[in-house]
Amino acid sequence: MAKKPEPAAKPAVKPAAAKADMTKYVCSVCGYEYDPAKGDPDNGVKPGTPFSALPKDWVCPVCGATKDQFEKK
Ligand SMILES: [Zn+2]
Q1: What's the CA-to-centroid distance between 44 and ligand 1, angstroms?
Q2: Residue 60: which of 43, 47, 46 has the closest Cα?
Q3: Strand-pair partners of 66
Q4: Which pLDDT value is given to residue 12?
Q5: Is 80 exceeded by the pLDDT of residue 42?
């Protein structure tokens, strides 16, 4: 399989969408930690879902706090 060689002087710019945001968020009410690598399968959130990609109506599975009550870890 022949692959076209990349130009050597190509700048190493990564597209923003290529890397998912794996920042963990912690519920300020109960301390539940949302880990994007794990998601929230019990509530239909697949592993690998960034916090920012959660549905607007997603709430803390432990205490029911809304997204804006979560803080970056
Ligand atoms: Zn909570």
Answers
A1: 17
A2: 43
A3: 59
A4: 61
A5: yes
